[in-house]
């Protein structure tokens, strides 16, 4: 089912980045890699972070379909949902409206870059949105080479 490059990605030790064109089997590789990692250590847990809720849901569904007895050993979510989950687990109540969240992000950004003043917040936000949708094209050759091999 997996080609040799995909098998190598599944069994790679340490961290791995999977970059490839749409429809090439990235999610399938991640599903098999998750299963492989969880089988290596039956006491281990796995956290999968994605950019969108839809991707997190799809990835979790695929991993759990292959490993139905995972229980709480697998957590999938977006950066935002996982951060919110951590805050809620520590007893913090989180219910920000999008406008309030934007104001908090602007304020935090202003504090961090006051000395450098490199880019305005809106420009950075638009770059983040761009990279979220064009991430395969934004990396240099090592990732592109890996994508070609997988």
From TrEMBL:
GO terms for biological process: recombinational repair. One of its GO terms (molecular function) is hydrolase activity. Residues 1-150 form the UvrD-like helicase ATP-binding domain. The keyword ATP-binding applies. Keywords: ATP-binding, Helicase, Hydrolase, Nucleotide-binding. ATP binds at residues 20-27. The keyword Heme does not apply. This is DNA 3'-5' helicase II. The lineage of its organism: Bacteria, Pseudomonadati, Pseudomonadota, Gammaproteobacteria, Lysobacterales.
């Amino acid at each position: 089912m997996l080609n040799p490059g995909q098998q190598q990605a599944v069994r790679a030790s340490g961290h791995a980045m999977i970059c490839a064109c749409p429809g090439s089997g990235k999610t399938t590789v991640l599903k098999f890699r998750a299963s492989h990692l969880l089988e290596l250590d039956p006491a281990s847990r796995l956290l999968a972070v994605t950019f969108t809720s839809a991707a997190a849901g799809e990835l979790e569904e695929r991993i759990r379909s292959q490993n139905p007895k995972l229980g709480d050993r697998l957590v999938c979510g977006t950066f935002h949902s996982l951060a919110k989950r951590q805050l809620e687990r520590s007893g913090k109540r989180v219910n920000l409206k999008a406008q309030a969240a934007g104001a908090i992000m602007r304020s935090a950004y202003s504090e961090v870059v006051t000395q450098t003043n490199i880019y305005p917040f809106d420009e950075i936000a638009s770059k983040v949105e761009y990279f979220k949708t064009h991430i395969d094209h934004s990396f240099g050759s090592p990732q592109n080479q890996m994508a070609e091999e997988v």
